[in-house]
Design goal:
This protein is an alpha+beta fold. It contains 8 helices and 10 strands. Helices cover 31% and strands 24% of the residues. It holds the Pfam family CS.
Length: 228
């Protein structure tokens, strides 16, 4: 975050608000206009620098529990940053044909057996090419993944807090559900869980702790478990 903050760059507020509405379903501009959200809080939210983590390769037994992620400025589009051709090319070669990165990108690699051991692993410059072995493994992993795998994870996330699924959501091409504590939706590639915790701003992320494995998700806010 400090790195991207030092780079500066002014973000287009209208683009940011559109992105936030697309991600959360909440029209923050409308809430601020109606007095339902403090303008200072909105300004702080839009000016906060944060890092978006894009998981490229997931740790599985087949790939030796190797995991690779890319880190970027989450306001890259709103700042009008130039496309990072190298990072974009790597992601697309690894099985993400629609992915585009803007601005500077950091690549992280870890060993994660999803149970006991987690450690960082070197990612040398020699691996930053589309012919690298990890790119081939990642592409195969993407090809093997199916919506059934994602649906299974979504089911297990809601195992202790069954989501209310209505006939409308069953007819929708995108599976969704909702409880008193959170709502979720599933696409072919991911499950998005949005928690209904009030009073938190983007800068309060230190108050939130998230731990997950392939079959379990635990989220704590201010020391209290929201889902486990």
């Amino acid at each position: 975050e400090q790195y991207f903050a030092r780079l500066g760059g002014e973000a287009d507020r209208s683009v940011l608000l559109e992105q936030l509405q697309a991600r959360t379903g909440v029209d923050l501009k409308d809430k601020a206009a109606k007095g339902e959200m403090d303008q200072k809080a909105l300004d702080q939210l839009l000016s906060t620098t944060s890092v978006e983590i894009f998981p490229v390769m997931l740790p599985t037994k087949e790939n030796g529990f190797d995991a690779i992620s890319m880190y970027c400025d989450d306001k890259g589009v709103a700042k009008g940053l130039e496309e990072n051709a190298r990072a974009t090319g790597l992601a697309r070669a690894a099985g993400f044909p629609q992915q585009t990165f803007r601005g500077d990108i950091f690549v992280g690699r870890v060993f994660d057996d999803t149970e006991d051991e987690w450690r960082r692993v070197d990612f040398p410059l020699s691996l930053c090419n589309s012919d690298a072995e990890w790119v081939t493994k990642c592409k195969k992993q993407r090809e093997r993944r199916s919506s059934c795998d994602i649906k299974s994870l979504a089911d297990q996330i809601g195992a202790n807090n069954p989501a209310k699924v209505t006939p409308d959501t069953m007819q929708d091409a995108t599976p969704t559900g909702e409880t008193d504590a959170y709502k979720w939706r599933q696409t072919d590639d991911e499950v998005e869980v949005t928690f209904k915790t009030e009073g938190l701003q983007k800068g309060d992320k230190k108050l939130v702790k998230v731990a997950f494995t392939r079959a379990h998700l635990k989220v704590e806010v201010r020391g209290q478990a929201v889902i486990d």
